[in-house]
Amino acid sequence: MRVMERTFREQLFFLLLCLCVLKGDSRYIENNDISQDELFSFFNSELKRETPDVLMYRRPLRCLDMIAVEGQFTFTAESPQLNCAAFFMAEPNQVISVDYDNVDIDCSGGDFITLFDGWVMKGERFPSSQDHPLPPNRRYVDYCDSGPAGEGARSSQNVAMIFFRVHSAGGGFSLTVKKHTNPFPCNVISQSPEGSYTMVIPHQHRNCSFSIIYPVALDVSEFSLGRHSGFSKRSLSGCPETGDYVQLLGGNGIDTSKLFPITDLCISFTGPTHMKIGCENTVVRMVSSGKFVSRVSFSYRLLNSQELQMIKLNNVEDFCFNNRV
Ligand SMILES: *[C@@H]1O[C@H](CO)[C@@H](O)[C@H](O)[C@H]1NC(C)=O
Hints:
CATH topology of the largest domain: Jelly Rolls
Largest sheet: 5 strands, mixed
Subcellular location: Secreted
Keywords: Disulfide bond, Glycoprotein, Secreted, Signal
Protein name: Corticotropin-releasing factor-binding protein
Radius of gyration: 21 Å
Order of helices and strands: HHEEEEEEEEEEEEEEEEEEEEEHH
Number of strands: 21
Signal peptide: 1-26
Bound molecules: 2-acetamido-2-deoxy-beta-D-glucopyranose
Strand content: 35-45%
CATH superfamily of the largest domain: Spermadhesin, CUB domain
Distance between the termini: 14 Å
Oligomer: single chain
Structural class: mainly beta
GO molecular function: corticotropin-releasing hormone binding
Strand order of the largest sheet: 1-3-12-5-10
Shape: globular
């Protein structure tokens, strides 16, 4: 049933993109109806197709696109294209730069290209405004506002995107996407439904989220706070009071501040912890006071359909299944 639903949604997906109309004076196409399933099925086929074996990979950019490789991407409007978006993604320890090469759009006629530092889906942002170093309005860089040079930008994490609109046929632009090493990755969207990751926050007062946009089995193998690792086993009356802790969150959107808390791990954590989470988005979020070098290691894999079914049957109250649309 789920499979059928997906196929149906994939078809809908393209329809919606053609048909959806921007609300009011909203300049940004944020109320997109793109679900994570749809995006990722698109993305997986994209990964298989794109093998960057030439010096500079080049291909046309589609009105709805997912780009996980470096290269030059050219959009040309064959007819007015009013609601376009391209999602960029890199490895967890990379950030993405997007630079314009040739731009032929009519800014005064209402065309635009806007870079966003993160992803927006159905009006929700990743990273959430709480966890992003920049205030929300500074995460948008508008080509038309940034002068004739049309500055590109570099993302703060492994995902970024552009929204664009081109009214006249023949108009368009090229952009070059590059990936750069990020020595201290904080917020991350996992490229795949399985893998392992160690999140480290070195003496920084900030919070970082690792988001897995699939229902997964998650194993937390290690959690430590600097020297205090395994030091204190006394029971504390709730994690937040210790200042540093790890949250496991789940839900069906991408804004981590709107997800449901599944459990908190704090200094008394003796691990390992194994959990199956039937949500469309599973997040490991670390809250760091900056007093320690905080570290959490975990691995994850996709839940199969039997496991999902079991969770569904066993947890009548399960928030993820109950909130599924
Ligand atoms: C980190 O998250 C906690 C709990 O969500 C919040 O109280 C705190 O202000 C956040 N810290 C920073 C630096 O954003």
